[in-house]
Design brief:
GO terms for molecular function: asparaginyl-tRNA synthase (glutamine-hydrolyzing) activity; glutaminyl-tRNA synthase (glutamine-hydrolyzing) activity. This is Indoleacetamide hydrolase. This protein is of the alpha/beta class and 439 residues long. Helix content is 35%, strand content 18%. The chain has one domain (2-427): Alpha-Beta Complex (Amidase signature (AS) enzymes). Strands 1-3-2-6-8-7-14-15-11-9-10 form an eleven-stranded mixed sheet, sandwiched between helices. Strands 4-5 form a two-stranded antiparallel ribbon. Strand 2 (45-49), helix 4 and strand 3 form a beta-alpha-beta unit. The two termini are 17 Å apart. The relative contact order is 0.14.
């Protein structure tokens, strides 16, 4: 069924760069009855952003630079899924080397939104979002450096989880920015997200950011209510300069939570005035460092977008980078203090719905903003703090596109994030229709 859907929809969705259908069929045929009972994802197809190494398969990173990079081994998360007998259906499209939030790719095409193919899927994990939203796979792996899983998930009506930094090792994933890179998950439901996280979470000593601590049974969080949960509502930044229908949808979620017994607590997050600048000042020198050898050997194969980003990295001084890293540490400490008084923080997932393919800027309240900045305005900060953050659908916009919310929790407390998200999902008040796929 899924192979047929890939054949039918990939030309429009541009979700997959490298489908691995025949290998998937062989793997599925070789599974025994006992193996199919060993994990919730046994025999279940999934896809991975084409930054994840899958043994024997090309890893392009969405670029011509890696046109010949065949992986010799599996990325950590892929290996865990292989051990759980999940079926890899292939590698998904992305913004070249994960540099960009629109998902536009001049080499492999631009992924589109399943609800409206004239709209962007978002990025950089655009193919993973499109693959799940178009029903080509039930789940997908992505990476999230500034919102690259959570934002496209929200724009496509999916669940997108960025676990705590270090919870899922990045071993075997092509790096973009070591300080901020997270492995992330996309699914249709909270239950699938909990099951997938249980499989891929863990510790790998080869990943300096990986943290050695027990992995929870995340499905145990499902079915619990939100009674007495203290939910922080930011007083600054996160409810400003957003689509009125998005803000109205979040008000409905707040009303539900209060009726369900949660306690809403106003919170003041750190000053966000320079947060995007801080993020980019960390990202671009680290990206330049990761690509220094390739730039010398294959510089002419980079796309114009990423080449411009690398040039920006060359203009950032060591002094700027060190100051930005100090800002990141302050953000982490100040945000972590908020969780002395609250269990979760609730924000909109994005300030805008999915925009038209080719959109360069959006205007809101008299302010023009680059489309990529708008898509990730509410997600980027929590890559710097490293807290677990989940986006999920909560309404449909009058333009027929999904609206999403974001829940942020304490370090390594994905259980509470999933508990609240599942309660919202289970209420039935915030469910959205599946996209029409008669393309």
């Amino acid at each position: 069924m899924f192979a047929e859907r890939i054949d039918r929809h990939n030309a429009v969705s541009k979700a997959f760069i490298t489908p691995t259908i025949e290998a998937a069929k062989r793997q599925a045929a070789g599974l025994s009855r006992d193996e199919l009972g060993e994990s919730p994802f046994a025999g279940v197809p999934y896809a991975s952003k084409d930054l994840f190494d899958v043994q024997g398969v090309l890893t392009t990173a969405g670029s011509r630079v890696f046109h010949d990079r065949v992986a010799k081994s599996d990325a950590y998360a892929v290996a865990k899924l292989r051990a759980a007998h999940a079926i890899s259906l292939g590698k998904t499209n992305l913004h070249e080397f994960a540099y960009g939030a629109t998902g536009e790719n001049e080499f492999y095409g631009t992924c589109v939104n399943a609800y409206d193919p004239t709209r962007l899927a978002g990025g950089s994990s655009s193919g993973s979002a499109a693959a799940v939203a178009f029903g080509l796979v039930p789940a997908a792996l992505g990476t999230d450096t500034g919102g690259s899983v959570r934002a496209p998930a929200a724009l496509n009506g999916l669940v997108g989880l960025k676990p705590t930094i270090g919870r899922v090792p990045t071993s075997g994933v092509v790096p973009y920015c070591w300080t901020l890179d997270h492995v992330g998950l996309m699914t249709r439901t909270i239950a699938d997200c909990a099951d997938l996280l249980r499989i891929v979470a863990g510790y790998d000593s080869s990943d300096p950011a990986s943290v050695n601590r027990p992995v929870d049974n995340y499905s145990d969080a499902l079915g619990q209510d939100v009674s007495s949960l203290r939910i922080g509502i930011p007083k600054n930044f996160y409810y400003e300069r957003a689509d009125d229908e998005i803000l109205a949808a979040l008000e409905s979620v707040k009303e539900y939570l209060v009726v369900a017994g949660a306690i809403l607590v106003p919170v003041a997050l750190p000053d966000m005035e320079h947060s995007r600048t801080v993020s980019l000042t960390v990202q671009m020198p680290e990206a330049l460092s990761a690509h220094s050898a390739y730039v010398q050997q294959r510089g002419d194969l980079y796309g114009a977008d990423f080449r411009a980003g690398l040039a920006l990295g060359q203009c950032i001084l060591a002094e700027h980078y060190v100051k930005a890293k100090r800002f990141v540490e302050v953000y982490r400490q100040e945000t972590n203090k908020l969780f002395d008084d609250v269990d979760l923080i609730l924000t909109p997932a994005t300030p805008e719905i999915a925009q038209k393919v080719g959109t360069v800027k959006v205007a809101r309240n008299g302010v023009n903003e680059a489309i990529g900045n708008a898509i990730t305005r509410y997600t980027t900060f929590f890559n710097m703090t490293g807290h677990p953050a989940l986006t999920m659908p909560c309404a449909m916009h009058s333009e027929g596109l999904p609206i999403g919310l974001q829940l942020v929790g304490r370090y390594f407390d994905e259980m509470t994030v999933l508990r609240a998200a599942h309660a919202i999902e289970r209420s039935g008040r915030f469910s959205i229709p599946l996209p029409s796929l008669g393309l």
